[in-house]
Every structure is written in structure tokens, then in C-alpha cells.
Amino acid sequence: MENKHSITHVILTGGVGSRLWPLSRKSQPKQYLDLFEGKSLFEMTVERNRTLVDQVMVVGNIDNCHLSRQVLEKSNTSYIDIIESTPRNTAAAIAFAALASDSEAILIVTPSDHIIDDMEQYNKAIQEAIEKASNGFIVTFGIVPIKPETGYGYIERKGNDVVSFREKPNKVTATDFIAKGNFLWNSGMFCFKAGVFLEELKLFAPEVYEKSKIAWDANIDGNLDLALSMDIPSISVDYAVMERSKKIKVVPSTFVWSDLGSFESVYDYLEATGHAVDTNGNMVIGTTNYTAFVGVKNTIFVYTETANLILQKENSQDVKNVYSALEKQNSDLLN
């Protein structure tokens, strides 16, 4: 790729995927599950951007860095490893990546747990974002919505300019957003020069910047100190920078995208790739045992060795309530 700036793919791997319990556990978060035609979401993320960038950087945590390492070593991918001792949300995670980079380097920041298809449109969006980032903008990718989804945040835009960021809406508000035609799904993907991001972080969230820099300066081979990390405010990059900076641009994107943040989205993906569904829309995930559904429709049965989950597809967002209840009990079923 002809570009005067070096380009780094920064992969954020910190989440646990509470809405995909019991498949997703603390010891095996959703991005490492080999559910997707024998590959994990993390592996697919690495492959997707391999030809677009000069180097790979992974920001993970002490609990899952070995899982990232297994995938990257298997594919013979050299990478820079940043290991958080405790999760401090996305503002700090991205700050570490920027601090580890040359100020002129362009960072393409992506989560590790998304499904993306239509690579021609994806590559086109990446190229547009790199061009804008080269000119000093902080770029976010907005996905042109295909339905009134309540599980995603939204970006209100005018052309490439961001008017506002909106939290996950209810069904009525989401339907209103779609009708207006100028709202995009917030993909949680970004592109910017490392130095530009750090300038904006310093301006709008100075404590996050200062404390992240102190922690980064004391890193040992990419490993971050626990006590110094605990000092960093836990805040999302949206709150810290994206909703405040005047340098934000959005690239409206039409590639196929899902954050697979619920069993409904997993169901839709698996069904589209040929996974068995009975005549009433019921699906089994996790076992080849004969399973019969009687008197129910659009039900998902999730099997694991230690826990099962039975849910109506449309209630997928409520799985996080089960996770939260188990968390309060300090249950081993989360590990």
C-alpha cells in the first residue's frame, strides 16, 4: 500500500461476552470460540486486516493474552503485545496502543469479536478512513443500518460530519432513527494518527492520558503494572474523546457487519452459513445430541458441559441478566 505513514492494526481483545454465556466464559471469551466455520472471531479479525497494514498490535489482558498468542503463533503473525493487568475500558486500552506507536503512525483500531463480510466495501471504507486520518481527523466507522437494532449505539451524521452519538435505543427510538435516514450503527472501529488521538485525549480526558502514560512508561515487555493501572479512570473512548472532539469524521460503510453481541446475531449468522434450524425456527448450539423442540418457536438451546441455556431468540439481550446474577454469586460457572 502506498502511504507515507506506517499503518498498525490495533486489536482490542478485552471483553468477556456476557451476552453469550454459557458459551463465552472468562477463561474462553467469545472472540476465541471456534464457532465460525472452524475459526474464531479473533482469528478472522487478524486475517481480515493482514494485507492492509504494516504491523499488528494486540491490547489484551492478563487472563486472555495466551489465547491471542496461540492464534497469532499458529498463523505465524509477528505482533506487538500489550497486556493489561486489569481492564480499564477502551480509552485507556487505545491510549496504550497510541503511546506504543510513533506519533505519525496511523492506527486502525478494531474489536476482536466482529463478523465482517463484503471485503471490497470493507477495504474501500478502510482506505477512505486512512486518507482522512492522514489529514489529522479521528475517524469512526458507521454502518448503514438494515433494521431498527436496539443492541447497538448510533451515530447521527450529516455527510461525513458527526452530529451526535446516541446510546443503545429502545425499539421506538431505533425505528425513528431508521426512518430519519441519517443514523448509522456505531461499529466501535476507529482510525487516526497516534499523536492526534493522544492530543485529544490529553485535552478532553487529561487524567486518563496522564495516568495511562505513567502506566505505559513503567511497562515491562508490554506488561502493565497493576497498581499504576488501577489509578487510571475506567472510561470508554466514546465518552473520553469521540463525543467531545471537534476532529471526528465518520465513514458511512455498507459492508456486512455484526458485533455478534447476542445469541440472536449468532443465530442469524449460523443460519446463513447452513447451521441446522427446524421448521419452527428452533436451533441447537454446542451439541450434536438429538434434540426435539415441542410447542415452541424461535428457541435457541445452548449446550455446554457445565451449563445449558434455553432462550427465545428475541430475548437474547436478557442473557446478560443471567450473567450478572451468577457474577453476584461469584459462581464458578462464569470461569
Q: How is this structure best described in words?
A:
- This protein has 335 residues and is an alpha/beta fold.
- It is 33% helix and 23% strand.
- The strands form 3 sheets. Strands 1, 2, 3, 4, 6, 7, 8, 9 and 10 form a 9-stranded mixed beta sheet that branches. A 3-stranded mixed beta sheet has the order 12-13-14, with no helix packed on it. Strands 5-11 form a two-stranded antiparallel sheet.
- Helix 3 packs across helix 7 (206-217) and helix 6 packs across helix 7 (206-217).
- It is globular and about 60 Å long.
- The model has no long low-confidence stretch (mean pLDDT 93).
Structure keywords:
335 residues; nine-stranded mixed β-sheet; 11 helices; 23% strand
> What is the CA–CA distance across the termini?
42 Å
Can you count the helices?
11
- In percent, how helical is the residue content? 25-40%
Evaluate the radius of gyration. Answer: 20 Å
What pattern of helices and strands is seen along the backbone?
Answer: EHEHEHEEHEEEHEHHHHEEHEEEH
The proportion of residues in beta strands is: 15-25%
Choose one word for the global shape: globular
Short description:
The protein has 335 residues and is of the alpha/beta class. It has 11 helices and 14 strands. The protein is globular and about 60 Å long.
